[in-house]
Amino acid sequence: MQDEVKKEKKTVVISVGNQKGGVGKTTNTIQLASALAERGRLSLIIDLDMTSGATKALRAPTEGWNSAFELLTCTENAEDTIIDNNEEEVPLPHNVHLIPSSRKLAELDTFLSQNPWVIHQNLLVEPINRLRGRYDYIFLDTPPQKTKTTIPALKVADWSILSAMPDHLAVSALGEALLDIATAQKFANSNLMLLGVIVCAMPKPKTRLARELVSYVERTCVDIIGKSLKFSTEISRSVIIQEAQRVGQSIFQYRPDHLVADEYRALARELEARIASIPAENETFEGQVVNA
């Protein structure tokens, strides 16, 4: 992707997270981006997790290519770290691009210690500014723990989305993630807002734990006027996601007629409708602080 690419899109930057692994964060990132692609949107996924979950799920390389490390350290132009749909070796979903993760993210501490004038929380500011206007959406797939990539992601994001599934530890981790967002709002990014919480891997019929999770999210994750920020669309538990990931595909490539694919389509519609509704209510939502 060259510098002369015309910048004309109104880019929305979304940080996707939770303080616990294995709660569908990466899955939701990939499937949402793919669902939005069906709607004609161009998305970029930036894998900021050293375990390379999104990178591996999309069968992209974790070594030998430019990665999120080069993006964060500005040792390569942001555009030169992107794997797009023209790369035959990595058959990404249509209209979904990727900046892969790599083990080199473990070297961020060393980089920062050797470059004392580099401000940690600003690592993504310049790269994201360069990429704004090229994509409809940029998804920042963050690690499950607070690492050197979590804070920079919250600094540059317009919105945050949290992922949760029926699990006792996931509920407590959700509370920690809400606190992180509130802290980022206070000290780094006053414009950051919680867009919503995706509840996924929901059994049918719902178990007691699943009902408790929904109740907790509806009670705790609210905007400044007390409206629940849980997305109405819930993602069902299904092995179809794992089957698609085993062959490096999104569910829309693997089984576009599946119920879960329809659920992600509905979630994408809900996400865009929610974003579109905010500008008209700016005064109401300005300075929103989530219930931590």
Word description of this protein:
The protein is α/β, with parallel strands linked by helices and about 290 residues long. The chain has a domain at about 10-160 and about 235-270: Rossmann fold, CATH 3.40.50. The chain is about 40% helix and about 10% strand. α1 (about 25-40) packs across α11. The radius of gyration is 18 Å and the shape is globular. The termini are far apart. The model is unreliable at about 280-290 (pLDDT under 50).
CATH-wise, what's the superfamily of the domain at 12-158 and 237-270? P-loop containing nucleotide triphosphate hydrolases
Which segments are poorly predicted (pLDDT under 50) over 5 or more consecutive residues? Answer: 280-292
**Helical region count?**
12
For the biggest β-sheet, the strand order reads 3-2-4-1-5-6
Cα-to-Cα separation, first versus last residue: 40 Å
If you consult CATH, what is the topology of the domain at 12-158 and 237-270? Rossmann fold
**Total beta strand runs:** 6
Order of helices and strands: EHEHHEHHEHEHEHHHHH
Shape: globular
- What's the average pLDDT? 90
CATH class bucket of the domain at 12-158 and 237-270: Alpha Beta
Please tell me the CATH architecture of the domain at 12-158 and 237-270 by its name: 3-Layer(aba) Sandwich
**What is the chains' assembly state?**
single chain
Main sheet makeup: 6 strands, parallel
Fraction of helical residues: 25-40%
Q: Roughly how many Å is the radius of gyration? A: 18 Å
Beta-strand percentage range: 5-15%
Class by helix and strand content? Answer: alpha/beta
